[in-house]
Amino acid sequence: MTSRYLAISLPNLGRGQTAAGKDFEHRLKFGILDKQEASMHRTKMHISLIVVLSLTVMMLTAFADEKLTALKVGSETYSNVTVMRTRPVNG
Question: Tell me: the pLDDT tens digits for 60-81?
Fold first, then answer.
């Protein structure tokens, strides 16, 4: 099975780039990747999306309300308390 795609000549490669890398970028731009390359690209994009979403969830949970199993105020004891905000006390 041969792969059919547009091959281009790239005499001026950027620093640190190979002809294969430039060729891949060109085929990606014009939507002419073969099945294996397209599958690898989708997998990399899915992993990137998962990482970004995971970091977003972690950031949001860092700002979540604080939950306490017990809170004692004077002689009263409260269970399963959620502290929604705090403020400094003067004195």
Answer: 777 777 888 999 999 999 999 8
DSSP 14: P
CB of 27 within 8 A of CB of 6? yes
35-49 pLDDT, tens per residue? Answer: 777 788 889 999 999
DSSP string, 42-62: HHHHHHHHHHHHHHHHHHHHH
Write the CA distances from 91 to 45, 85, 86, 88, integer angstroms. 54, 19, 16, 10
CA atoms of 34 and 91, how far apart (whole Å): 71
For residues 70-88, one letter each, b for 16 or more C-beta atoms within 10 angstroms of the residue's C-beta and e for the rest, the string is eeeeeeeeeeeeeeeeeee
